[in-house]
């Protein structure tokens, strides 16, 4: 969607979205950036629609050995000397780049702490997962545990555990 300047001048934003024109009504999210109430005039054009030109399907699996070479092939807009320099730089430091979706990296140079002050932990009951999503969730959790992205923790601020079947447990964030 494209947003006319008359709306943005009033400290009002319209959320970018994709819509289905088969629907009779199209909901529009509007955000007031000011602390004062705003009025949008009836009939005012708050957004325009444009058709999607290209739909690019994301490949399901990436070949780790082909990822960097495929990046090197897509160096449009560079002359041959610049391409050679970029290729050499990327190949020299290729161990610093992610080679797959599960290669998220780690940094032990700093620690992050969330200061909650004296606020006690918030307890929320886990939300039930639809059965249609159960298998996908189990696979994602297993993948994250295997890759060291999540781990089992205990303590007052730890997320609650849910059993998803007989053998798989899921960590829920409580949000």
Give a brief outline of the structure:
With 175 residues, the protein is α+β, with helices and mostly antiparallel strands. The chain contains four helices and four strands, in the order αββαααββ.
Structural class: alpha+beta
**How many distinct beta strands?**
4
Kindly report the average pLDDT value.
73
Q: Major beta sheet, specifics?
A: 2 strands, antiparallel
N- to C-terminal distance: 30 Å
Radius of gyration: 24 Å
Low-confidence stretches: 1-7, 59-66
SS strand fraction: 5-15%
Helix content, binned percent: 10-25%
Q: Which strand order does the major sheet show?
A: 1-2
What is the global morphology?
extended
Count of discrete alpha- or pi-helical segments spanning 4 or more residues = 4
Order of helices and strands: HEEHHHEE
Organism: Araneus ventricosus (Orbweaver spider)
Protein name: Peptidase A9 domain-containing protein
InterPro entries: DNA/RNA_pol_sf, Spumavirus_A9
GO molecular function: aspartic-type endopeptidase activity
């Amino acid at each position: 969607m494209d947003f006319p300047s008359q709306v943005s001048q009033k400290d009002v934003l319209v959320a970018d979205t994709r819509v289905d024109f088969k629907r009779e009504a199209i909901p529009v999210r509007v955000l007031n950036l000011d602390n004062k109430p705003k009025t949008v005039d009836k009939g005012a054009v708050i957004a325009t629609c444009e058709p999607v030109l290209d739909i690019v399907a994301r490949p399901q699996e990436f070949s780790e050995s082909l990822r960097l070479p495929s990046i090197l092939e897509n160096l449009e807009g560079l002359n041959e000397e610049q391409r050679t320099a970029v290729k050499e730089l990327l190949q020299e430091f290729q161990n610093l780049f992610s080679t797959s979706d599960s290669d998220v990296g780690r940094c032990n140079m700093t620690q992050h702490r969330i200061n909650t002050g004296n606020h006690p932990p918030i307890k929320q009951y886990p939300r039930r997962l639809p059965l249609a999503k159960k298998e996908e969730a189990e696979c994602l959790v297993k993948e994250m545990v295997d890759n060291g992205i999540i781990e089992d923790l205990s303590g007052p601020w730890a997320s609650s555990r849910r059993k998803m079947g007989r053998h798989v447990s899921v960590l829920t964030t409580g949000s």
